Amino acid sequence: MEFKRKIIINCDKGELWNLIKDYKKKPEFWHGTRSIEKIDDFYYVQFAFPGKGKMSMEVNDNNYYTKENYLKGPFTGYIITKIEDNNDIKLISEWNIKLSPSLILFTKRLQKHFQTGTEDALNRIKNYLEDK
């Protein structure tokens, strides 16, 4: 399952970057994530639906992106969240995941659900930063 969503945000790039690289803030904006706990080099995710996952995360301060590598759970693969700063500041979320065998029958419905959730999260981030 692959898709990309983006939004233009009128804010300070540094403030946006500090927000998206802070894994503790993720549940505040990404409502499909209930909690994240870091233990050693891995992050353990409790999703809003019944399910848990294990991921690693790469944070690239030079190129303004995070890459969440999902290793175990209801899906595997990665989600990249990045900032592009050409004329406008754009926040982009790129998904490339594979559902677990028990969820494959629900691929179309879950893709729509993940796309809508991503759009909602990007809008929550936008509103949070622009309403300051």
Q: State the major sheet.
A: 7 strands, antiparallel
Helix content: 25-40%
Number of strands: 7
Order of helices and strands: EHHEEEEEEH
Name given to the CATH architecture:
2-Layer Sandwich
| Shape estimate | globular
Look at the structure and give the CATH class.
Answer: Alpha Beta
Describe the structure.
The mean pLDDT is 96. A hairpin with a 3-residue loop joins strand 6 and strand 7. With 132 residues, the chain is an alpha+beta fold. The protein has helices at 13-20, 26-29, 107-130, and strands at 2-8, 33-39, 42-47, 52-60, 65-72, 75-85, 89-99. It contains three helices and seven strands. It has a single domain (2-130), classed as 2-Layer Sandwich (Alpha-D-Glucose-1,6-Bisphosphate, Chain A, domain 4), CATH 3.30.530.20. The termini are far apart. The chain has a seven-stranded antiparallel sheet with strand order 1-7-6-5-4-3-2. Helix content is 27%, strand content 45%.
Short account of what is shown:
This protein is an alpha+beta fold and 132 residues long. The protein has helices at 13-20, 26-29, 107-130; strands at residues 2-8, 33-39, 42-47, 52-60, 65-72, 75-85, 89-99.
